[in-house]
Amino acid sequence: MAQANTQGVRPVTIEQTSDPKHFIIWLDKHIGKPEECVLLKCSLFMTMDPTTRLFERNLNQDDIDRSIRFDAALSVRLDDVEFMFQVFVDVEKCYETIKNNLDKRIFFITSGSKGQIIVPSLVANFEGAFGPNNRIYIFCANTLMTAVEGVDPPTNTWVLNFLEYILMFNHQDDLLVRMVSNIADYLFTEAKRLDNDQYLDSAYQNYEWAKRMYQRYERMGPIRKTTDIQDIEQRIRNIEQRRNPYRNDNDDDDDNGHAGEPCS
Q1: Which of 144, 157, 205, 221 is least surrounded, with the fewest CB atoms within 10 Å of its CB?
Q2: d(CA 105, CA 7)
């Protein structure tokens, strides 16, 4: 049985690798339709312009079509965090891509009908890749798992066997808010692990990413993340002090209070 690494490849420093270790995979028979998942395609992610290699335009329908047609991952950016992103309509191709990328942290979205096919195989064959700390997002109009009088019959009774692996959503806004929160939590956890292992540059970068993701989450949802953001800012200041143990902050008043601000 394949043994998946839920934390991804152990980073060294940000300067030593440019390959994203975060992979968003979306499997859905309707994802290629222009009217589907408009928020995702038009406003959430920035994608790289192949002519300039810069992240300077929103993900669009042509990007989605190209990813499906050529079985190719796109390079996208959410705030400053770079992700691999790939769209599938074919279950087997999606399964193989997940199998070949277990060294990355995978955030996986699928529909109820496609999920019924692929989720049992993922759970059975890739132990540890998904679970309470990295749930699979099921995006489906009918989220009923049991019969309810007076409404359409349930179409996702299969989910009852995988409750610890799955979160279900019937609106893309709710899905994306939850995904941003989960990504921020993951980056914060990863930053603390790197910090404890004395990978200060990588820890610093992950703290910055986590902070920006929590800030985005606050803009998207009603829950404040003030405590987490303040904790991150303190940890960033601690890293700066450990990088420069002989610095006297009183000698540089201009820097006081700005240790946690994003780099320009």
Answers
A1: 157
A2: 6
Q: Token pair 């610093």 is at which residue?
A: 204
The answer to whether the CB of 217 falls within 8 A of the CB of 180 is yes
How buried is residue 215: exposed, middle or buried, by Cβ count under 10 Å (0-12/13-18/19+)?
middle
Distance CA(113)–CA(161), nearest Å, equals 15
- Identity at 185, one-letter amino acid code: D
In this structure, what are the phi and psi dihedrals at residue 230, rounded to the nearest 5 degrees? Answer: -65, -40
Structure tokens at 102: 């277990």
pTM: 0.80
**Beta strands, E only, the chain:** 2-3, 22-27, 46-49, 54-58, 74-78, 81-88, 105-110, 126-127, 136-139, 166-169
* CB atoms inside a 10 Å sphere around CB 77: 17
Sheet holding 54-58, edge to edge: 54-58, 46-49, 74-78, 81-88, 22-27, 105-110, 136-139, 166-169
Residue 86 tokens, joined: 């790939």
pLDDT in tens, 11-48: 333 333 456 899 999 999 887 776 777 767 676 788 87
Estimate to the nearest angstrom the gap between the alpha carbon of 255 and the chain centroid.
32
Q: What is the DSSP letter of 113?
A: H
pLDDT digit string (tens) for 244-254?
Answer: 877 665 555 44
